[in-house]
Design goal:
The strands form two sheets. Strands 1-2 form a two-stranded antiparallel ribbon. It is mainly alpha-helical and 424 residues long. It is built from 20 helices and four strands. It folds into three domains: 105 residues; 150 residues, no CATH class; 108 residues, Alpha Horseshoe (Serine Threonine Protein Phosphatase 5, Tetratricopeptide repeat). This is DUF6817 domain-containing protein.
Length: 424
Amino acid sequence: MQDSPPHELTMASSIEKLLERARPFLRGDLQSIHQNLPSLVAVLQSVGAGECWHKHGSFLHHLLDIYRILALWKAPHSVCLCGLFHSAYSNSYVNLAIFDPSTGREVVRHHVGHQAEALIHLFCVVPRQTLIHDDLLFHYSDQELVQHLAEAEISLRNAKEKGVFDGEEGWRKKLQGLVPAEGVEVKHIRTGEGVRVSRKIVGVFVMMTMADFCDQLFGFQDVLFDNANGRLEFSGNNLAVVWPGDGKPGLWMNSISRMGAVYRLIVREEEIWIEEKRRKVGGVVVDVERNEDIELVLPPVFDECTRVLEAGDQIVARDLYWEGVCEREMGKIEELMVQSISKNPFVGEPYVVLSQVCLTEGRFEEAEKHAEKGLRLLLEWGCPWDKRNSWEGWVAWSRVLLMKAKDKSWPNTSWGILNLGLVK
């Protein structure tokens, strides 16, 4: 029997590790995720989070989704808890104050602890559109971000390997101008008072906004805000749109990839800052005022936030995908999916569709390869791009396809398709 190539073994091992981390969420085993999670969810249920509307479902489902995404991205527990309660006092985007910010903070603090509650409260009072978009994202072009990402890796190597620290480097100077080492001051969304946000917390909020947006955005918001150019600038105002619309995947990936790039720059700048301080004082001294006790992790999406997806490419990719899933002829579907992937290789669903096409035509090795790729991306995102189905549904279907591809079998009747479902 011929051995599998090393890259195939690596892919299988990677998927198994991702599945191991995701399995408690897929099984709804909240207790094994964290011992306090069932009681925290019960608190959210008791105050009516499950009765509130939120974009493509209920507010409760959205809160749980954000917790899941952040946990799968290996964010610190306090950050995951912030995700679970992230709009609980209402915030600059939504009016969902299921806890009164003037009287309910002690209640929330009792359940999640001081550090997480402080993050939750801060997240709910900062002007996030201004902080994330106006003061950060909109100051960079896509090309500039790509260039700065490459320069940041060189700077980090120079800092750690050679002890070279140059604050005048272009990428560092620009980032420091936008988010200085001491952090930024923003206006409280309700009182107008100044609120200090450390650079690390700015980074945390960028990552949380990535998770927040990728879970909730789909074609409905594109029409609502006239996002025809795919830049997600929230510049339109189209009230004449009926929810939930046609269910198309949203044009949010350029914006999220840009957030990821800015976030990675913040992570690298913080690493250089800490390394320089360590060398000066002869050891590690954690400055809690700068929130240096909070770890900044790199989400796996967009190749660990190293890639920026062009707005035009995401539009072409989405439209090709949509044309494909509305098509009936298998050869045409395959052609459209391949073209879609060539423009946007960062989401799993086109690979999953392509896998089913290959299975239908008995091309089992190709089907296995595409199913593995699609499943890995779905597990890394922790949410679906095509929100006509749930993340759990997409993951389960991908696993069915992968299992059948490995078994080299596929139904030859309609009833056989309906009989699918068991995952081993």
